[in-house]
Amino acid sequence: MNRLVVVSNRVAPIRDSKAAAGGLAVGVYEALREAGGFWFGWNGEVTKKPEISYETLGNITYITMGLCKRDYDQYYRGFSNATLWPIFHYRIDLARYCREDYEGYRRVNAMLAEKLKPLLRPDDIIWVHDYHLIPFADACRQLGVDNRIGFFLHIPFPAPEILTAIPAHRDLLKTFSAYDLIGFQTETDRLAFQDYMTREAHGQVKPDGSLFAYGQKFRTGVYPIGVMPDEIRRMAESYRGRRPLIGRTTDGKLRKTIISVDRLDYSKGLLERFLAYEEFLDLFPEHRRNVEYVQIAPTSRSDVKTYQAIRKQLETEAGHLNGRLADLDWTPLHYLNKSLDRRTLMGLFRSANVGFVVPLRDGMNLVAKEYVASQDPADPGVLVLSRFAGAVHELTSALIVNPYDCVGMAEALDRALRMPLAERKERYEQQMQAIRAADLSAWRDNFLRDLGAFADQPSALREG
Ligand code: ADQ
């Protein structure tokens, strides 16, 4: 078995997969735990003297380093999160571009490639993750690295009309051709990428489905990231008996609950959902006092300006909603800016009647899958899901809503809360089938299988 080398922006040694927050970390960890290898990237620290450090836990070695302030500002806070993130989520209005940031982004990718190169063996397979590291393979190739290198994009890939708003799009997109395989969450994302390569870069789709552009042949594929449904269910079940306090009335009865869990990010549509919930309480006043909505949203990227602005808006709307509607014994909205451990989170999902997952744009959205996988099959809750989450391609029997349609979302909440048990069960079973068919192991195995298909002739295949 070839050794697996994973490269991702942020690397934090995982001591317990149950404690690891989120899909990327858990997925990569599981892949590495089986194959053995190392995980390479930034340790999350900003330091004057970035030094490499090594830590081995089981058969995974974590090789990490800090970033100096300038690199952090230009590569991470600047081009990755103030240019690429908004544009890839269709928010040109929030994007900021400056040449120095782009140069810093390229420079940090080159620096990381230089640090990685001496650690590589010829038959290592390199798997690079996400938008921070698009030019990473190109930087490796320039240093003579001939290993197989695959890339997986966790976020959406935008239509070329949006993408070309990045002044450096030509230089950036060319670097994709240094990969052997590029993976996307959905076919929509893959087609948008192919569209750019054929229309903007004058590339061709070969009869075998691969792309030829910039003098290179490379493959693309769709690998929807999944969850580990059995583990989630076990975690959720083990929470039983310690039912969360939310939803309890003063006379001990349980109110119905709606739950949302997201990083505090403008792409997640948090403001839109607060407004829709208020609309729901106005349109259907019979639900007042009988329902509570819990939004858990730990702050993220709080030193990027747009994130500070959205946080303020949410605080204002949450205060307004509760101020207008709450009573001594009823708080309609619980808004928590904190992280919870996964077991508690899965327990909360299981106890909530509705999972309200309505991002404005999302690569996949694992919370949607986690919510469904946490449910009690005998009495499952209802998933209300945005048509703009990648997960909608698989979870077709959720209640699908348009997050820009406030009244439509309010009506969906009403419908979800009233849905009869038989219908809830039927929808739940269909969603579980999809979740099992594309679980986390399938994501990892299919991607690595396809990347491994280049084993016999790595460089020959790469030249058209
Ligand atoms: P994210 O944008 O972070 O991921 P998501 O897919 O929902 O979005 O994953 C978030 C993960 O963090 C989930 O596993 C969730 O349970 C966990 N999480 C969120 N809030 C939490 C909290 N308060 N406490 C503890 N855990 C919390 C990016 C892309 C997505 C894509 C994933 C994986 O933006 O579209 O699905 O990567 O590819």
UniProtKB/TrEMBL annotation:
Pfam families, sorted: Glyco_transf_20 (PF00982)
| InterPro entries hit by this protein | Glyco_trans_20 (IPR001830)
Its domain of life reads: Bacteria
PANTHER family on file: BCDNA.GH08860, TREHALOSE-6-PHOSPHATE SYNTHASE
Of which family is this protein a member?
Belongs to the glycosyltransferase 20 family.
Q: What is this protein called?
A: Trehalose-6-phosphate synthase
Annotated source species: Azotobacter bryophylli
